[in-house]
């Protein structure tokens, strides 16, 4: 009996590893991740987002396609003249689906905080009291789940900076957190290769802090 249990367990592990390193999935993801870097218009953003959603439909056990589709919704809301609330809500919907696949995931938790921060930015006077602690809690949770996640740390720094500007205080605390995030980004670069499809963004946010934190 133990022998059969062992065979079953080994078979399950082999199947899991095979799915985790599916060349077709990685190739499709890499193509769209590269396309993200060239987006200049809303139409291009929607096209890439739809491609990620098609990958998600083909690979429903993978959280990354939904992650990137959500990220594109958030970035589109900040970059283009669209219904921002609608875009942030769509992002949150994708994140909820992804969280069912990968619960307690630092990247997804940080991205959820990013979407909440976006909704806050639409109407800070009326939403600040409710959404500020929600975003801070999500960033704190993302950091607790993975203390080497540079995006969670940089987004926390962004919230700290926003609060400092709102209350008329200095950026020192935000800058300290941002420097930690920048250091983590540099450390992360050692893991990245051509087939790396996990999130790596954050350089633009880090460079914006360099102007504030001189």
Can you put this structure into words, describing what you see?
The protein has 214 residues and is an all-alpha fold. The chain folds into two domains: 24-103, Serine Threonine Protein Phosphatase 5, Tetratricopeptide repeat (Alpha Horseshoe), CATH 1.25.40; 110-214, Serine Threonine Protein Phosphatase 5, Tetratricopeptide repeat, CATH 1.25.40. The protein has helices at 2-20, 23-36, 42-58, 64-79, 84-101, 106-122, 124-145, 150-167, 172-188, 203-212. The longest helix has 22 residues, at 124-145. The N and C termini lie far apart (67 Å).
Structural class: mainly alpha
Number of helices: 10
Rg measurement, Å: 19 Å
Helix content: over 70%
**What is the CA-CA span between the terminal residues?**
67 Å
The ordered H/E elements are HHHHHHHHHH
* Approximate strand percentage: under 5%
CATH class of the largest domain: Mainly Alpha
Q: What global shape is seen?
A: globular
Number of separate strands: 0
Oligomer: single chain
Low-confidence stretches: 1-20
CATH topology of the largest domain: Serine Threonine Protein Phosphatase 5, Tetratricopeptide repeat
Q: Give me the CATH architecture of the largest domain, please.
A: Alpha Horseshoe
For the biggest sheet, the summary is: none
Query: What is the count of distinct domains?
Result: 2
Q: Give the integer mean of the pLDDT values.
A: 91
How are the SSEs ordered, and which strands pair?
Blueprint: H1 2-20, H2 23-36, H3 42-58, H4 64-79, H5 84-101, H6 106-122, H7 124-145, H8 150-167, H9 172-188, H10 203-212
Helix pairs in contact: 2-3, 3-4, 4-5, 4-6, 5-6, 6-7, 6-8, 7-8, 8-9, 9-10
């Amino acid at each position: 009996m133990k022998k059969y249990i062992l065979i079953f367990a080994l078979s399950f592990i082999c199947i899991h590893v095979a799915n985790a390193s599916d060349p077709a999935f990685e190739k499709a993801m890499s193509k769209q991740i590269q396309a993200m870097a060239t987006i200049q218009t809303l139409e291009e953003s929607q096209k890439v987002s739809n491609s990620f959603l098609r990958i998600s439909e083909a690979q429903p056990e993978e959280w990354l396609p939904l992650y990137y589709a959500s990220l594109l919704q958030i970035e589109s809301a900040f970059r283009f003249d669209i219904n921002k609330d609608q875009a942030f809500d769509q992002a949150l919907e994708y994140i909820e689906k992804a969280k069912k696949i990968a619960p307690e995931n630092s990247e997804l938790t940080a991205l959820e905080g990013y979407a909440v921060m976006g909704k806050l930015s639409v109407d800070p006077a009326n939403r600040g009291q409710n959404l500020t602690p929600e975003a801070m809690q999500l960033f704190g949770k993302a950091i607790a789940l993975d203390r080497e996640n540079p995006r969670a740390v940089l987004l926390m720094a962004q919230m700290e900076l926003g609060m400092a500007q709102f209350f008329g205080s200095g950026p020192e605390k935000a800058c300290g957190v941002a420097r930690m995030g920048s250091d983590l980004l540099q450390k992360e670069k050692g893991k990245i290769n051509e087939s790396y499809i996990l999130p790596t963004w954050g350089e633009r946010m880090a460079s914006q802090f360099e102007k504030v934190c001189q």
